[in-house]
Amino acid sequence: MSKAKAKSMPDLVDALRKKRADIQQGGGPERLAKQHEQGKLSARERLAAVTDPHSLEEFGLFAQHRQTQFGMANKVCPADGVVTAAATIEGRLVHLASQDFTVLGGSAGEVHSLKVADAMARALKTGSPFIFINDSGGARVQEGIDSLSGYGQVFFHNVLLSGVVPQISLICGPCAGGAAYSPALTDFVIQTRQAQMFITGPQVIQQVTGEQISAEALGGADAHMAHSGVIHLIAENDLHAAELCRRLLSFLPANNLEEPPRLPSDGNVDPNPALNDVVPLDPKKGYDIRDVIQLTVDNGDFLEIQAGYARNMVVGFARIIGRSVGVIANQPSYLSGAIDIDASIKASRFIRFCNAFNIPLVTFVDVPGFLPGVQQEHGGIIRNGAKLLFAYSAATVPKIQVILRKSYGGAHVAMCSRDLGADCCLAWPTAEVAVMGAEGAVEIVFRKEMQEAENKAARRSELIEDYRSTFSNPFVAAGRRLVDDVIEPADTRRHLARALEYLHRKRDTRPPKKHGLIPM
Ligand code: HXC
Fold this sequence. Notes:
Number of strands: 16
CATH superfamily of the largest domain: 2-enoyl-CoA Hydratase, Chain A, domain 1
Number of helices: 20
Bound molecules: hexanoyl-coenzyme A
Mean pLDDT: 95
CATH architecture of the largest domain: Alpha-Beta Complex
Largest sheet: 8 strands, mixed
């Protein structure tokens, strides 16, 4: 019997290096070239783009499926089609998973998904954000229910992490079937223009319903931004998605027990006279609320979230003297800024994210009311509008309200009013805090008087003017301490900076309970 030659350490190291390099090739050069042809990066290139140089520590490189049926017995799936790792972003720890489409279409088998769940568990234990880069044909069909079970583990961990560490999904390729539910369970979804996301694809839809639609029109980035509200940011390509992810994280704490990072600031809060001229005095005229936001925050730097969804409500992150804030604002240039179902859902979700992660809320108000209409009523504006009341009332972070112009009726209450727990309520001299607009109020209260008047039009104008001068201003509300101060618009930044300073140590404890019941 011949004796096997004893291996030396250099042999073992060489073999290890070769094995590692082979696995890191993923599905091989041909598939990688196809990936690049489609304008997509590889799983590892994406990780490199998101994280700090040389910070990546991969784990699970040698993980492998254990399926023996459907031709899988001898099928090697490098890293089982997903790269999982710890790394840093701007020096802060994160955990990541990145699906490798070159390996069986990035399909998620049992081990693949358990690797992702492992990365999530590490994120949870270490209080670090979790980033999941999706590029996958969904559950690995050959693995049957084992792959479904794997997905179940991912979903379960998404929920465990929710509200403890920020979770960000990047959709960089197909994200089909139940796979789309993991992103939906995360806090922010960034989709590239090369990616499509859907539960059932165009072919299935055509078979079942007869409807014909392209994959792009069904689940492309524009469709999800404008219609479904599933995604939060659109990226032109993978590199842009990585950049957006890093920028987004810069506003966020690593976990719910930490404060958001405070950036160095020169502390400049000098008056900005441009703010005195942004809002038209004519209440019927629109303007872009983003001008007010940009003129108020540090360096005009505003990361708008869900910019193309419910455009009547603007939300996003900014900083004031280096402190992260979540901004919520009515947008008078779209639907006059009226709150509809989608606007309420969009704002409520954003408010709850900020509250979970200790980010103060700054709310700019210019709202004529909730949007009237049968579609809104039957669509559930009562249930969905109530989400906004719930989200603001339940939020315990510092809450600052700035009323710019209209603040009418239920929408006044809903937009972070004093009665929903606002800590600081400021109003511009143009503010009209009232139960409704003067025109509407006069129609209700003085209809008879106007009908009986000799000159109906003149009497109507007179009554409107009378109502406006009595009620449509900030001073009635200030008199009832529903507004703390009426300020010059140019000084808004200084007032906000001070409010954030004195509210920094805010503590607001609520009765213990399992959880509240936001109207779903
Ligand atoms: C196994 C898969 C796969 C999958 C793709 N592949 N999806 N293998 N399971 N789910 C394999 C393909 O067989 C192919 O292998 C390789 O990945 C590349 O796929 P292509 O089809 O050549 O690529 P492309 O033309 O770019 O099309 C990509 C695609 C398409 C649109 C994603 O592959 C597709 O429609 N896949 C199925 C999508 C789907 O129905 N998923 C739902 C699964 S059920 P070879 O070796 O030929 O190159 C599900 C339920 C989960 O997800 C529920 C959780 C609760």
